[in-house]
Amino acid sequence: MCVRTLRDRNKMKKTIIAVLLIALAAAACRQTMMARRIDVAEKSEYLSPCAVVASPDGARLYIAEQTAMQIAVFDTVAEKNAGTVVLSAQPSGLALSADGSRLYATCGSPSGFVAVIDTATLAVVTEIDAGHTAVSPVLSPDGATLYVCNRYNNNVSAIGLASGKELRRIPVRREPIAAAITPDGRYLFVANHLPTGPSSVDFVAAVVSVIDIAQQKVTAEIDLPNGSTSLRSICVSPDGKYAYVPHILARFHMPTTQLVRGWMNTAGLSIIDVAAMKRFNTVLLDDVDKGSANPWAVACTTDSKTVCVTQAGTHEISVIDAPSLLEKLAKMPEKLDNTKTVDYTAASLIADDVPNDLSFLVGHRKRIKVKGNGPRALAIVGRRAYVPEYFTDSMSVVELDIEGYKQVRAVALGPAQPLTTVRTGEMFFNDAALCFQSWQSCESCHPDSRADGLNWDLLNDGMGNPKNSKSMLLAHRTPPSMSSGIRDSAEMAVRAGIKFIQFAVRPEEDAVAIDEYLKSMKPLPGPVACDAKLAASVERGRKLFNDPKVGCAACHSGELYTDLQSYDVGTRGELDRRDDFDTPTLIEVWRSAPYLHDGRSVEMKDVITRDNPQDKHGKTSQLSEEEKADLANFVLSL
After folding, report:
1. Residues 78, 122: one domain?
2. Residue-wise pLDDT tens digits, 270-324
3. Burial 352-367 (b: 16+ CB within 10 A, else e)
4. Are residue 163 and residue 52 in the same domain, yes or no?
């Protein structure tokens, strides 16, 4: 008996040692994974909720709190926090297994990955490598494959969950930022954030890519209306009939002389017919005298009868009656029938009129103010919408079938934190309350404080000479502002923007806060800089860039790669009134295509070759094709 007891004890010791060794190995593996990540983000005292998903029974919400680098578990019955999952990078999106046992969180660092979380223990089980700025994880209906948008790699990862490895990457268009799969698992709809192509042409719009799951490739691209940009979300109705994608619908052909009736920016909701694989139509979320700036998250109720869209710039949610809206759209003729009486009092007479009709949703939509600031996420449980708010670290609970003051209540997601000047400035940059009739915020033309891929005819330098919108990164360190240099400084440009683009008068402290926010922005390393396979090419390109015989470094000099001067480099277009243009910084230029002041160059190589015919923009004509590619890679690595 004593011998048996001793054996049992020895066996138990070996078991404990084995468990400890496994735990230590797992910890070491996790440290190794964390060590190889490229991450420029810093943890903040602010939560900044950016995504939310509900458990199958609706009893729990999992909320991705971006700048806090964590996921909060929210008890919907007690309406309080029930746990926290700490991550090694900023979460950007969430997906939950059908049985609710596994939570998949994309982490949007340059070395993107997916954190796999056991929802029973709230422990990170493993991390699976993905691409640059991984976002919007989507599970296949059978739970076997996880699809992840790699925003700055312009592709989608297909990850086999049995092996825990990436199976393949599927190329899509520019900056895939959201995806949704059909209930039958046949198609994955991918919303591409920005337009692809030059901004100097008449038609500029982002597209929705459709991936055929069986073929594992894009088999359709669905065009959105001219001016469609800043896509942020997409959903497929549970009945599988329609996909809904909110976006900005910019009127970029118009000189920016006013804002009324959506003169500059409107908020669109495009509806895609899944069976036909084409856009059914696009409706405007705005009202005649009030914009719905920065449409963001979208979701459907389980019966497909209600579609909800958050408006992050106006801090609202639109609740849309889908059957009545779809019926109205179906009745719109393709062209006028001269044999029938025409109702000329209607704003829309044919289907093509609808994307310009600010009254089309009247009678089909409730526009509800939420309690906090910056609703960027949305989950629907039954007839209740949960709307986390980015800037106030709060969540509004919206009863979809109740009217009046009882319809919305606020829930704090954490203790209130005092707003720093930088955080206040970021909030103002995104807030359409600073704009006349709430048509737009600074974010509307500068998504993520960068550029929207459109040319705008601003009044800074007169009408009739549109210019490509610019990134706000380093604007305060690289005067003058605007490609024509018409504003002496970014400080002047911020104040002019509030007055002449937002058509508002605001206290000076608002502009000061926006200045401080823009000054705080940090560049993000791009895909070229993160790709070890391109290191040799980048180094060769660096030598060419600094070679006096090529001449790039003569103007793009210093740590910011600009001498702050204007030059005639042979890029004057037919609409321009001058020959010389400001030398822009090249830091993070990989993110700001299309290039040159009028957006004519789609790729950096175009700047070096096709759009440099006289060698005024660097002496590049004598370079070989390989050298041109090396030079482009170096510039894109900055």
Report:
1. yes
2. 999 999 999 999 999 999 999 999 999 999 999 999 999 999 999 999 999 999 9
3. eebbbbbebbeebbbb
4. yes
- Rounded to whole angstroms, the Cα distance separating 595 from 607 reads 7
φ, ψ for residue 297, nearest 5 deg: -95, 150
Q: Based on the fold, state whether residues 600 and 539 are members of the same structural domain.
A: yes
Q: How far apart are the first and last CA of the chain?
A: 73
- The answer to whether residue 282 sits within a structural domain is no
Strand partners, 104: 95, 116
Among 296, 362, 291, 300, CA closest to 328: 362
Regarding whether 508 and 488 lie in a shared domain, the answer is yes
| Residues contacting residue 523 through CB under 8 Å, at least 6 positions apart | 473, 474, 587, 588
Residue 189 lies in a domain: no
Structural domain including 539 reads 527-636
State pLDDT tens for residues 212-231: 999 999 999 999 999 999 99
CB 81 within 8 A of CB 75: yes
Residue 606 has pLDDT above 50, yes or no: yes
- The CATH code of the domain that includes 76 is 2.130.10.10
Residue 79 has which token pair? 């309406």
- Which residue shows structure tokens 């070890």? 532
Which of 470, 495, 520 is the last residue in one of the domains?
520
Question: Is the CB of residue 150 less than 8 Å from the CB of residue 132?
Answer: yes
At 347-386, the pLDDT tens digits run: 899 999 999 999 999 999 999 999 999 999 999 999 999 9
CA 551 to chain centre: 36
List the structure tokens of 85.
């999952």
Domain termination residue (choose one: 495, 520, 545):
520
63 and 148 assigned to the same domain: yes
Its pTM stands at: 0.93
| Confidence check: pLDDT of 541 > 50 | yes
